[in-house]
Each structure stands twice: as C-alpha cells, then as structure tokens.
Design goal:
globular; five-stranded mixed β-barrel; six-stranded mixed sheet; alpha/beta; 25% strand; 361 residues
C-alpha cells in the first residue's frame, strides 16, 4: 500500500515532475507582458502543458470523516480480504470502490459497514484566492497602511474572491479567500508568499489588464516565474500562469471581470484542481440541447455563454442563453446552471439549433 505522506505547513503537496514529456508545451516559453500577444492557444493545448509538469497530491492515511470529498488512492477490497476470511454476505462483493473515486457520504457509510476506519486517499487541494485591487482604487486612497489589511481599505465588495473561492470549493478543493491585495510595491509578493504556507494552488483575479501585468510579473518574479498567454476562449482570452515558491506552487492569473474570471476558471483552473485531487472525472458533463432563441457571438474563439438548461413539454433538453441588457453579468451568471459552448468560427446560433452544453453544479 502507498506510504503515508504527511502534509506539513512548510511542505506543500504539489509535486513538479522532474521529467515532463518533451512533446508537451513548455510553459516557460510564455511571453512577458512587454512582448507582442502570441497566437491564441487552444484550451486542450494549454492544459496539456500545465498538467505535464504536475502530479496529483500525495496520498495520506485519513480517518473516514477526514476523507469526505477526497479521492481514493487505492481500490478498496472487501473487508473479508483484509481480515483473511470470507463472509457469505460479501461473497458477491467485488472491488466496488475504485481508485480515483471521490468519496461521498454514501461511500463513507459503505466503508464503515465493511469495517474500515481509515483509508488511503488524496487530500483536497488547498486553493488560495487573492483579489488584486484595481489601480484606480489604489490611487483613490491616500495611503494604504503597510501593516494593516487591504480588505478594509477598499469599499468595493470582493465579488471575485467569493465567486472563485466557492467555485474552487465546489470543484473539490479546500478554498481560502485571502481578500483584497493592493498592487503597490511589495504588497502582492508579500501576500502570495505568506499564503504559500497553506496553498497547493493560487488564483489571483484582477491580474490580466495590460496596465497591471508588468507589476504582477515584477512582484511574482521574485517568488518564481509567471507569463501571459492568449487562450482561444471568450470571454477570458488573456490568462497568466506560472510557478512560485520553493515547491513550485501553480499560480493562475485571471481577469477582473467576474464572468471572464469564472469562464477562465471553468476552462483551465477547475480541471487542474480535479487533476491534483486525483479524480478520474476532470471535465464537466456535456450534453446536447436545443437553443431556445437566436444567439449572436462576436468572437472568433470558442465562446462560453451562461445559460439555463431545462426540459420542454416533450422531455427534450432546451437551453436559453442568459443575455439581457436589463441584467448585470453577475445576475446572469447567478441564474445559470449551464454554459453553452459555441465552437470557434461560429458567429450565430439559430433558434432551434442544437448546441453543446456544459452542466454546472
């Protein structure tokens, strides 16, 4: 059985592979903010480059209640095989809990019924979400207390902090919202450096605007390396990523706009969280549905459109894009239970046309 690896505060569990596949994209080739924007990368290409140098978190021996939401590292055999005898009630039970299974309350009940008190499982990745304050917000404040909390210095609600932390938690992570951080010299570097003690992955929103990129690169460059790239998705086509800290903690740089940040999270960050968790279900379930009304797309990339998926009177799947001049993007996102995926090159979807839909939680 896999040995137990303790998860210490100074030794994050993310491991960087020493021999990544040479055929994959080398993410250290990402250009700096001063370079010309590169050609857009496809999501799959970008993910291959990210995942090529990562490994799932190391397994740990966990009590059953600690293992909720974690993934089994080993297939759990019948208890009779463990105890060395066969019970008639278990003669028909095979290895019903496979490795890679994310444990639910029902799974824990089954394990308890079979005599297990502990299991070898991969822990939930610790995800720290940092919200970088906009430059205009800093300029409006005469002085940010160097010893105080930036959270108290800004009057704007931390929309992205709550959105992305909740999304990371729902994806299987253990999320921590760090709140606002001022983009003043030394502040971001210090904040991220302090958060690395409890992070397997760091998300920073508000870090992709052209005016802020050089500052972010300067600050995080003192902890590791970061770069920016264009991804063939809309919204959220500009993303940054890199590694920081002595353990090479992955860091993702997302937009200030909540919908852009959320789409980037769904397309790139969520699969990475699922990969670190060790689960075999990395992607959202996809279904085909009939679009209830015309949808115009002003983009040459794959568009992710918040939508509402329902059943019609005949029991068929029908999806309605949530785009209205009368509602805010955050309100539209709150009403969505799906994302319509409009493929690259498509400029319009007609009413009644079939579309691919990603199911949200």
């Amino acid at each position: 059985m896999t040995s137990v690896t303790q998860r210490g505060a100074t030794s994050p569990s993310v491991r960087v592979s020493s021999q990544p596949d040479s055929t994959e994209v080398d993410l250290r080739d990402l250009p700096s903010s001063a370079a010309s924007p590169p050609a857009p990368r496809g999501v799959e290409e970008l993910l291959r480059g990210v995942l090529a140098s990562l490994e799932p978190l190391a397994p740990m021996e966990l009590r059953l209640m600690e293992a909720l939401g974690c993934t089994l590292a080993d297939t759990v055999p019948p208890v009779s095989a463990v105890l060395g005898h066969q019970d008639e009630r278990e003669a028909h039970i095979d290895d019903v809990l496979p490795a890679g299974l994310q444990l639910t309350p029902a799974h824990l009940a089954l394990l308890a019924s079979r005599g297990y008190e502990r299991v070898m499982a991969r822990p939930r990745p610790r995800v720290v979400v940092v919200s970088l304050a906009p430059l205009e917000g800093v300029q409006a404040i005469p002085e940010v207390d160097p010893e105080g909390s930036d959270e108290l210095a800004f009057n704007e609600p931390d929309i992205n902090g709550y959105l992305l932390a909740a999304a990371a938690q729902a994806a299987g992570g253990l999320a921590f919202r760090a709140g606002w951080v001022a983009p003043t010299p030394g502040r971001l570097r210090e904040a991220v450096d302090n958060e690395l003690l409890r992070a397997d992955l760091v998300i920073i929103s508000g870090a992709t605007d052209r005016a802020i990129r050089s500052r972010v690169e300067l600050e995080l460059g003192q902890l590791g390396w970061v770069g920016y790239t264009n991804v063939a998705i809309d919204p959220g086509h500009v993303q940054g990523l890199g590694r920081v800290g002595s353990q090479g903690c992955p860091v993702f740089l997302l937009a200030q706009d909540p919908v852009e940040a959320y789409v980037s999270f769904e397309a790139v960050v969520r699969p990475v969280i699922r990969y670190l968790l060790g689960t075999t279900a990395m992607q959202r379930p996809l279904v085909t549905a009939r679009c209830s009304r015309r949808l115009d797309v002003v983009s040459h990339s794959c568009a992710y459109v918040p939508a509402r998926l329902e059943q019609d009177e005949q029991g068929g799947a029908v999806v309605t894009p949530l785009r209205s001049p009368l509602s805010s993007p955050v309100e539209e996102l709150a009403g969505a239970n799906a994302l319509i995926l409009v493929q690259e090159g498509t400029t319009a979807v007609k009413a009644g046309e079939s579309v691919t839909v990603a199911l949200l939680d």
